Every structure is written in C-alpha cells, then in structure tokens.
Amino acid sequence: MNKRCLSRSTNTAPIQSRSAQSTPFWFFVFLMAEWCVGLMSGTSVDGIDCALIQTDGERVFWPRAEEQGKEDLTGSTGTTNSELAYLVPYDPAFQRELRSLFGVDTSAVLAGTSEVDTSRSTVIRIEQDLTERHAAAVAPLLARAARTDRHVALIGMHGQTVFHRPASAHPPDAPAPGITCQLGDGNLLAELTKVPVVFDFRTADVALGGEGAPLVPVFHQALCRSLSRTLLAKLGMYQQQRELVLGILNLGGVGNITFVRLKPAAQHTDTPGSAVVPVHALPGAGEDFVSEDGLDLLALDTGPGNALVDDWMLANTQVPCDFDGVAAASGTVDGGVLAKLMAHPYFDRVPPKSLDRQSFALSVPECGLVAPACSVADGAATLTAFTAASAIASTQWACFCADGPKLRCVTCPRVSGILVCGGGRRNATLMRMLRDRAQALAVVLRPVEDVGWDGDLLEAQAFAFLAKRVQQSQPTSFPRTTRVSKPVCGGRIAVPQVPQAEMLE
C-alpha cells in the first residue's frame, strides 16, 4: 500500500508491509475506509467548495502529500487549492439569484402555503440550476479520483441554506416548529454524477427539537483527537494540564464555534520517527487525546461572520466584501453602536443555539449604523468589531457540566486556544481584532493552517465525513451540539438508477 495518512511527525514515510501480528488495529480500519466527496455552498455565497477525503465515519485519512499539486481541475472558472480540493466560484448574477431567496421559507413556497411573492417556479428553477452547478463542480474531482483508482462511494451535499428558524427562535408565548431550508436536489445530483448522494442533513435534527446547526462539531472532534501535544505546547495552547479545551471557530457568513474537551490519552507516540497514524486513531493506538462523542463537545453560532460586513460593502460600494479588511482598517469603531449590537437577546440564550444569516439584518440600522450618516469605513470597522466581539464572547459558555452549559463556569477548564477557519480568517483586520480580544482572556488564537488543516475546505471535508456517518447510521448531531433531544443521524440518501460502478464495467 502506497498510502499515507496525516502524521504528527514531519519525516513521514509510506506505510510499509508488515505482518498481521505487528500491524496495529487502525491499519485494518484504514483499509475499510472509503473515498467520499463533500460539497459546501455557504452563506457567503462565494461558490462551491469541493473536497475528497478517505474516511470510515470515525477517522479521516488524508491523501499523500505529493498529491497536493497545482493541477487545475476546474477550467477557467475554478480556483484550485489542490488536486483533491478546490473552490468553484459563483458568477455575480447567480449570487444575486441566491440572495433573492434569503429569508424565504422555500418549503412553504413549494407547498403553496407561503405569503411571499416568490413563485414556486422560481424556487424550482434556482434549485435545479444550483444542483447542476454542483454536478459540474464535482465532475473534475470524480474524474481525478477515477484516474487514480479511487472509487468514490458517496457525495455529501450540504446545499444552500436560504432560511433557518429553529423552534428556539420563536418567543416562549408563541411556540412554533422549527424550519430549515437548504436548496439542492439530491436525487438529481445522484443521477447527474451516478454516485449516491447524502443530502438534507439538517431537517431530522430540527424535527426533534434541535437547532439544526452547527453540524461540523463531530468532524472537528475527530480532527482534534490526534492533535500533537508537542505542537499545541509550541503554539502555547497546552501546558501539560490534565485536560484542555480548544475552540474551532468557523467564520463564514455566520460565525460558529465548536468547543472540544480533550483529555490526554494514557499512551501516545509523539516522537520523531513514530509510526504514521491516521488523523483520528483509537485510544491508545497512537493518538495524543481522547474525547467522547456527544459529551466532550459544545457548539453554537457565535453571531455574524462575514455576512454583515459583506452586505454593508455591497450596499454602499457595490463591492461584495471588505477585501483583507482594508476598509475596516481605515475606519473607527463606533463603541455605542457596538454595545447596542452586543445587547441583542441572542447572546443571553444558553447554548447550543443557532442563527439565520439574516438574524441581525434589522439590528444594524436600528442601532444607528446607516449610510451616509456613517462612513463606509466606520461601518465596516464597527461590523467587523461586532463579529470579533461576539466570537470571543462565546468562550464564556465553554462548559461541559452534566446539567448543561453555565456562563463563566469555574469548574470546567478554560478555553486555552482557538483555531480559526473559513473565509474570515483571510481578513487581516478581523484577525487582529480577534487576537486582541482573545489575548485579553489569555487565549491563543491561530489559523487552522498552524496545525496542518485547510481552513478554506474544512466544511466541505466535514460533509464528506458526515455523509459516511449517515450511510452507517451514526449520529451527526448531539444534544450538546444542536440541542436535539437525542443523538440523531440526519440526512437522506439518494441512489442513482445506474451507479457509476456499473457504468465503468
């Protein structure tokens, strides 16, 4: 086998043939893992992230380092990060079409019970267009996989969230069922790609009283289990304590964070020349930390990610975002407006909790942030500060007590480090504001690249991982990640009439 898994040693080498007696158990697990594709279209509506990983739903196995090349698989419309992962951007016209459905309960439109002006035919047309774009985006990845003898077993398609209102978003005196709407026709994608597709990941969670978001925590936990103690110590996140808490902060359109409690494993092999191990190995089989599914996790949406700043820039400059935070860097934060924004009742709710992209849209003008009274630069600076303040404030909820999260818990270990992924980490002004606020709490904040992860493609990889879990009927969300009443396996599987494997025969 000339395969290589992500290693904690820089001098890794391919796994060599060895006798069954000396082969660790996880090696046989690796042989049972399958290649899965994840497709993610986030609330920033920049495009479709595509990623291929090998996983068994518990562990993640990365491709060999030499395969992280520069081959352009997407033609003139794609931005390639590697041969097995890339972004295919949306054109501005399609971005406008998707944005036109933000805040629209498309399930009600399709059922004929909506009071909005959006027509059923419009929703169907945009969803079909979105699905066909997903098929076109993933085609080069499937072709690459076939050329290199990787049989793609599953595609995990998140779809495009246009409306998200969990039951908890309704006032106590007017309870109502939760609703979440993601565009994307899994059956059509399966027929177009001839690969089974897992889709509709959130509905089952919401139906059982969950928030429906975030869904990536169990993937974050799988990655964190094998983080090196030595590496975390070098980054200042680990000081040989008995256990630690890391935050994985994703800054897309909405901000969300996963808190993972990690307990040092009884045995670990964090030494030069140690055996190559998978990203997530079994306890005592080479991993440095253990973390129990469902119990050592806490997740929540922190507040706005990039959405408010993006919308502000688009409305006032016709530019879709504040590239590198240049506008915010030249502006002044309005402390009064920021205080009003941080007084939003959402921040007093006990997690797990989630947001819709539009949750703060009305709060911005209500708090006095209106052009031209407020300059473009000052507005960008204030909204960027809002993202940073709400993200770091979420750390005060990092609690793993059996009776639920408590604000500023004194019995649980404090957050020692935050790893940042998503497009927001490319905004230098936002990262500076995050670091300043984190430093004030003695928390180390770094981009996820500092631990060897890809911050642009982590969510796409997560939905490949979740697809495999759905296939195996494993939980994708837990009471401590979405407030669901019990661990739930969310997602539906669409099977093509003529599978890809049969077409190749």
TrEMBL record:
It comes from the Eukaryota. The keyword Kinase applies. GO terms for molecular function: ATP binding; kinase activity; phosphotransferase activity, alcohol group as acceptor. Keywords: Kinase, Transferase. Pfam families: AnmK. One of its GO terms (biological process) is amino sugar metabolic process. HAMAP family: AnhMurNAc_kinase (MF_01270). This is Anhydro-N-acetylmuramic acid kinase. The lineage of its organism: Eukaryota, Filasterea, Capsaspora.
